[in-house]
Specification:
The chain is α/β, with parallel strands linked by helices and about 190 residues long. It is about 35% helix and about 25% strand. It folds into two domains: about 40 residues, no CATH class; about 100 residues, 2-Layer Sandwich (GMP Synthetase, Chain A, domain 3), CATH 3.30.300. The chain has a three-stranded antiparallel beta sheet with strand order 1-2-3, with no helix packed on it. It has a three-stranded mixed beta sheet with strand order 4-7-9, covered by helices on one side. Strands 5-6-8 form a three-stranded mixed beta sheet. The mean pLDDT is about 90.
Length: about 190
């Protein structure tokens, strides 16, 4: 087999230049994209007097605070000794995905001329525990029931859920599938 060392060096030089161009372009794109920063304060309120001296010695209660907004009462899932009257992180994750999707969806509908008059999503999430005591979400399923004003826009209304999922900041940040089972209905006068 005949190897042309000069040709191999040229091809390698081209790959090095292309790689540098891609890295430079990626750096440029990251440098020019806006960043948004968020801050939340979590305050544990579950010390019953002996701190974390034992697994059953403390409550999982806490407050989620963001400056200038009402506090959110938090706890763990009741399966993990949490208070069922408070929001748990798993519920808040499902709610964040659903909320982000809805906001993108409404935006896209307004741009596409689809008039949405009502939107309700009964989102669900499935988390599995792992052998080491941890866990992870397997999936979240959104069940948006969207009421629109014009039957002729029903197909477009359903299509926009796919685009909303691609744009949703939260959906782009998780490592599990987010499925959609939308229902579009028309408002009757």
């Amino acid at each position: 087999m005949y190897l042309n060392i000069g040709l191999i060096k040229e091809i390698n030089a081209i790959f090095v230049m292309l790689n540098k161009s891609v890295q430079s372009a990626n750096h440029f794109n990251r440098q020019n994209m806006p960043e948004h920063h968020y801050k939340a304060t979590i305050t544990w309120t579950g010390n019953t007097g002996s701190g974390t001296s034992g697994y059953r010695a403390y409550e999982r209660s806490h407050l989620i605070s963001v400056e200038g907004k009402p506090d959110i009462p938090g706890s763990s899932d009741p399966a993990f000794r949490g208070d069922r009257t408070r929001y748990n992180p798993e519920e808040l994750l499902v709610a964040s995905i659903s909320s982000c999707h809805m906001l993108w969806y409404l935006h896209l509908c307004s741009e596409a001329g689809v008039i949405v008059v009502d939107y309700v999503d009964e989102a669900t999430g499935t988390m599995e525990e792992t052998a080491d005591g941890g866990g992870r979400f397997k999936e979240v399923i959104l069940h948006p029931k969207v009421t629109i004003s014009d039957q002729s826009m029903a197909d477009k209304a359903n299509e926009l859920h796919h685009r909303a999922n691609k744009l949703c900041f939260i959906a782009n940040s998780v490592n599990f599938p987010i499925l959609h089972k939308p229902i579009s209905q028309v408002r009757h006068a």
